[in-house]
Amino acid sequence: VQLQASGGGLVQAGDSLRLSCAASGRAAGTYHMAWFRQAPGKEREFVAVGGPSTYIAHSVKGRFTISTDNAKNVVFLQMNNLKPEDSAVYYCAASLKFTTTRGEYDYWGQGTLVTVSS
What we know:
By secondary structure, the chain is an all-beta fold. 0% of the residues lie in helices and 51% in strands. It is built from no helices and 11 strands. The strands form 2 sheets. Strands 2, 4, 5, 6, 9, 10 and 11 form a 7-stranded mixed sheet that branches. The chain has a 4-stranded antiparallel sheet with strand order 1-3-8-7, with no helix packed on it. Strand 7 (64-69) and strand 8 (74-79) form a beta hairpin.
């Protein structure tokens, strides 16, 4: 499975961004797709997982939503009311499990940088 993330950029606090991750390859549609993020000097942390159920990390709940276009094997992360602490490289990942555990994800995209200025 290959994952291609896009949509990052430089925004101001309070702005919105939508990240996309397209999955391709054999059996791509059978995987749960998720988003993680990693800020400089910090561990990579779970953000959200989708398809068909969803689960959002407490730290972003109410501001971020995850959705999936099953026909196209694309997962979206809609990020609203962005804060400077949301600045990180955002990675999409795929797992056969519906999980928040980083080590249980088998495939990773290349990451897309989100920078939120205050």
